[in-house]
Amino acid sequence: xxxxxxxxxxxxxxxxxxxxxxxxxxxxxxxxxxxxxxxxxxxxxxxxxxxxxxxxxxxxxxxxxxxxxxxxxxxxxxxxxxxxxxxxxxxxxxxxxxxxxxxxxxxxxxxxxxxxxxxxxxxxxxxxxxxxxxxxxxxxxxxxxxxxxxxxxxxxxxxxxxxxxxxxxxxxxxxxxxxxxxxxxxxxxxxxxxxxxxxxxxxxxxxxxxxxxxxxxxxxxxxxxxxxxxxxxxxxxxxxxxxxxxxxxxxxxxxxxxxxxxxxxxxxxxxxxxxxxxxxxxxxxxxxxxxxxxxxxxxxxxxxxxxxxxxxxxxxxxxxxxxxxxxxxxxxxxxxxxxxxxxxxxxxxxxxxxxxxxxxxxxxxxxxxxxxxxxxxxxxxxxxxxxxxxxxxxxxxxxxxxxxxxxxxxxxxxxxxxxxxxxxxxxxxxxxxxxxxxxxxxxxxxxxxxxxxxxxxxxxxxxxxxxxxxxxxxxxx
Length: 477
Hints:
By secondary structure, the chain is of the alpha+beta class. It folds into 2 domains: about 25-140, Roll (Ubiquitin-like (UB roll)); about 150-470, Creatine Kinase, Chain A, domain 2 (2-Layer Sandwich), CATH 3.30.590.10. It has 15 helices and 14 strands. The strands form 2 sheets. Strands 7, 8, 9, 10, 11, 12, 13 and 14 form an 8-stranded mixed β-sheet that branches. Strands 1, 2, 3, 4, 5 and 6 form a 6-stranded mixed β-sheet that branches.
């Protein structure tokens, strides 16, 4: 009898033919034994051990897979998690100071996030890690741990939050020189993409091959896209994710951003999640749909038995209205973010709420009462997904705990009204630092670190002379 044929190992490269059981990697591996089998069966040679920094940038180490499974201790210094987006470091002050020893922090892999890296030529895997001190204590100022802290606060109250992010981004022509403005890419028609293409299938088809790669890369990592549309901006797309656990969804957004950038580079294009990358075009948001379940019964606490809105629903919105302006620096983390939050950008400019009203900051979409949810439309797509979800859920939880009442819902256009939100980064940091309820629930180590980073980033921005200044001041003042 001839020997049984061995199954071929799945390639790390993603093609059009895919076998379903090889696809669902995310949240699949439960322990080190399963991880070793998973890696060996796929012929994985290298592993990227990554964790998000304050900006949502992947930091970590790469190592051979055999070393990864040999109980090797992984460590990183704390400094990268106190770094600005430009690579600088804030000064001590306002409650922030560097640890005296800057000792190593331990990287603890979350094996359930183990997945392939489909854009690498050699068989490579990736795993998201948490950071702990040498004695095992959670590092409170790191983004994934901040979100875990908020989810745990809900659990303390017998609740479980459920979220569904929507992420907008632009495709732009390659632009290695930052002095030149970004411009829309050329699609398969050979013509530059224009604006006003909201929900256009033809607009999506302009990037068929690139979008195919986004889908293929996503499937191979176990990332599930709900829908993909063309937004209003020239070359602006939006991806909607399925609802689920906040930590899992933040992990997915973190990985999606890497995936979309890599797919775009494969087609000689940039994908950018800047809030306002192109002058005269709409900004890019990261809308967050939120509902809250009772942990014991699984019931959506935003509805009463008769289907009407519950007190918890109104208190959640009340918390959003009161505290989201103070948390804005976590939803709009850069100077560029505030270019989106203007009356001319079709973005929310205050804290109004309403039923199926897209001009409000907090929209309640049409749904069955059991699926009732609150959509936070303020965050921009440049926000760290872990911190945006943590802040949004924290504001709602504070509202429910303190029984805060919202204003009356509005049914008119309100994003052309007076701007009630902070107009700039420093104002947002000041409000953030003054909100004691918010600082307490997020944790003082994070609050002081994050505020210091944002102040340092503003100072770096102030060192740059803009084209506007050269245009209007050079010969006129």
